[in-house]
Sequence to fold (390 residues):
Amino acid sequence: MSAATAVIPKVVIPKVVILGAGFGGLELSSRLSEELGADVDVTLIDKHDSFVFGFSKLDVMFGKRKLDEVRSYYRDIAKPGVEFRQETVQSIDPNAKRVVTDQGTYDADILVVALGADYDVSATPGLAEGGHEFYSVAGADRLRDFLPTFSAGVAVIAVLGPFFKCPAAPFEAAFMLHEMLEERGIRDDVTMYVLSSLPAPVPISEEISGAIVGALAERDIELWPSSRVTSIDPNTHVATIEDGRTLAFDLLLGVPVHVAPPVVVEGGLTEADGWIAVDPATMATKFAGVYALGDVTSMPVPRTGVMAEGEARTLADVLLAQLSDGAPPPPFDGVATCYLEWGDGLVARVNVEFLGDTPPHGSFTPPSAAITAEKAEFGATRRRRWFGSD
Ligand SMILES: Cc1cc2nc3c(=O)[nH]c(=O)nc-3n(C[C@H](O)[C@H](O)[C@H](O)COP(=O)(O)OP(=O)(O)OC[C@H]3O[C@@H](n4cnc5c(N)ncnc54)[C@H](O)[C@@H]3O)c2cc1C
Fold:
């Protein structure tokens, strides 16, 4: 796809409208404010009043932190040139770069869609009645109360879609559940499985996958790869896998099917695969002056916060170059570092590279106190940068 170049009036301050204040929207608005200050007019729109890191959902779910402790409030954003509005986007006209929310209409010079991925719980029959999704803030918070009531039987962590955010998260959930059951002295009363749609935990890297498979085996957690659960019988508590195999369970923690937010689909922004296509070099969509980043796109990288953040940095450079008639920046390299909860309060690290000259690859660094501290600092730097506080 060729980059759609915005026609930006140079004499007036450009009006940038960013839809979604997640990893991508927060990083982009911060960077534009840092570079341009009051010479840019950024409106950042999100339906929620606060941001929660994906990884904090696991802390909430396993009772390590309360929801109130992991929220960062958008009202604390105080950046030159940036105004946050808590509104719900109701329609997007990408040809006119016009957005209608529940509270008003916005006409943008530059429109950025960073609305993330929604979950379609109803796409998996029986999930709502017979299982528990743990990917939403509400789902994680419900499990915080429910998990202490589970004491014996078969526990399954099941991936329900063909792909999903943060490929490591189902395994982190497994390690943390194992730890919780050990602490409660009931691990021997529970048989644990992880059922994934992928052929290996992190298919691009034997090193990372091998480390995760080894850690599952050490904890006596059985992995069923290429085993996407497509339906659940809430009465008999049996999960059915794509190829017809079944598994009876007492507790099912599900990674729900991901879809683009309906407002993005209705606006005609998505392709046949259900996601927004972008030029990986510039994040430009096929509509002039309209860009997209993060989980809502079909960028050939895993859906993670760190990738959305990297894409936002690239898009900021693209916009800054356009505004100053400068040379185009290098394309997004798809390089990222992710932290993996390993249980017992320790964190491991994976480094991945997706879009360089070599095929996608990654490396694994075993858990340590130093990496655990590094992850805490990762969160703290984002909170400081985006919200001005720890
Ligand atoms: C359990 C779990 C663990 C994870 N761990 C990690 C990790 O360790 N590292 C990592 O990098 N990633 C992790 N992730 C993934 C990460 O959270 C996402 O990939 C990341 O948030 C994507 O960023 P984004 O900006 O594309 O979308 P999001 O951060 O999802 O932001 C989208 C925003 O759009 C808003 N929105 C949606 N629709 C509307 C509308 N109609 N009107 C207004 N606002 C709207 C939403 O409220 C949301 O704030 C994890 C995810 C989960 C679920």
Notes: The domain at 15-117+260-331 is CATH 3.50.50.60 (FAD/NAD(P)-binding domain).
